[in-house]
Amino acid sequence: MSDTRRNFIHAAAAVAAGLGGAVSAAAQARGSQTPAPAAGQGPGQGQGRGGRGQQSAGPPKPVSEVQVPKMKFGNAEISRLICGCNQFYGFGHFNNTLGALMQEYYTKERVCDVLHQCNRFGINAFNFYSASRGVPDFEAFQAEGGKMHLIVQGTGDQTEFIKTFKPLSIYHHGENTDRAFHNGQMDTVKEWCKKMRDTGSMVGVGSHNPEVIAQVESENWDVDFYACCVYNRTRTQDEWRKVLGGELVEMQGDCYVQSDPAKMYKVIQATKKPCFAFKIMAAGRVSNAEQAFKTAYESIKPIDGVFIGLFPRAKDEVRENAERVHRLLAGS
User: Fold this and answer.
1) What percent of the chain has pLDDT over 90?
2) What is the predicted pLDDT for the residue at 32?
3) Which residue, of 16, 80, 91, 144, has the greatest Cβ tally within 10 A?
4) CB burial readout 183-217, b (16+ within 10 A) else e
5) Residue 15: its pLDDT value, please?
6) What is the pLDDT of residue 6?
7) Residues near 267 by Cβ (< 8 Å), separated by ≥ 6?
8) What span, in angstroms and rounded, lies between the C-alpha atoms of 323 and 332?
9) Residue 40 has what pLDDT?
10) Residue 12 or 276, more confident
11) What is the DSSP string of 65-120?
12) Residue 213: phi, psi to the nearest 5?
């Protein structure tokens, strides 16, 4: 190697080392001067305690001027937009890849961050599921000062859970309800509701099938509310063949038919009991979110609410949805 080339390489290495030291020093300086989150903007949006960006020192404090309108539910005032829980634990209802991505993204810290972000926008109710990490994650949120009214998806005997956490309400999980309906075992659902009623909690029935809600209503069950998926994703294979002209699709349980929402909204309007509509975005398949929210709130009663799943990896979905609902319901 010539002296000229050797000298050039040595000089380039020295410059690179110097630049690397400067960049490192600048990064350390930035880290010591991390700005506080702006009002309404908090962690859990891909830059929070589980992310690669700034590290939060605890639950953010600012309260947003935009607050989701409230409704009376039992003895509480709850937001008409309720935080869902499916995405927290990988139940994306789209495909296995997205589900795995959600599981990887949602650490305990990010679950807490999103719940705190909900609180800042007046979302004070949580469609809770006690399995998986549900209980320890919620306990961590409470330890950080967070508060949520729990509307629990109930499976099995929830007596001890109700004694410990005193949720506002609990309802029979929709997929289990629909399975009982298909098997002619709705009496088991009714008995479960009676048992949960004995705990003192408000009790409801969840379903993806408008016929199920209509049957429970016509039989005048002792329940307080309904959780209503606006897409019927629990049809049997024979029912899917009828809907799809004899064909079957892959992942039938996550097939979303455009004519379904109007049928469930009609049932929601027909009952005087509070209802919670969910999957109004067809688990992320609907491209026009504004129209989906507009249709939902125009199609349910003033005493009804909407469960919404959140996956703020690319944008602040809590803020976006809260502002949208505030605009639709409060006119600003």
Assistant:
1) 68
2) 36
3) 80
4) eeebeebbebbeebeebebbbbbbbbbbebbbebb
5) 38
6) 44
7) 210, 213, 214, 217, 228
8) 9
9) 40
10) 276
11) S----EEEETTEEEESEEE--GGGGT--SS-HHHHHHHHHH--HHHHHHHHHHHHH
12) -60, -40
CB-CB neighbours of 86 under 10 Å: 21
| Amino acid at the residue 213 | I
Pairing of strands 202-207, 70-73: unpaired
**Which pLDDT score is estimated for 14?**
44
* Two structure tokens written together for 163: 């004694």
Q: Is the C-alpha dihedral spanning 290, 293, 296, 302 positive or negative?
A: negative
Q: Where are the domains of the chain?
A: 34-330
Alpha carbons 204 and 274: distance in angstroms, whole number: 10
Q: What is the pTM of this model?
A: 0.81
d(CA 277, CA 150): 16
Confidence band (pLDDT; 50, 70, 90) for 64?
Answer: confident
Q: What are the tens digits of pLDDT across the range 223-235?
A: 999 999 999 999 9
Read off the pLDDT band of 140 (50, 70, 90): very high
| Domain at 34-330: CATH code | 3.20.20.100
Give first-to-last CA distance, the chain, whole Å.
72
Phi, psi of 63 (to 5 degrees): -105, 135
- CA-closest candidate to residue 196, choices 140, 151, 249: 151
The backbone torsions φ and ψ at residue 152, rounded to the nearest 5 degrees and listed phi first, read -90, 135
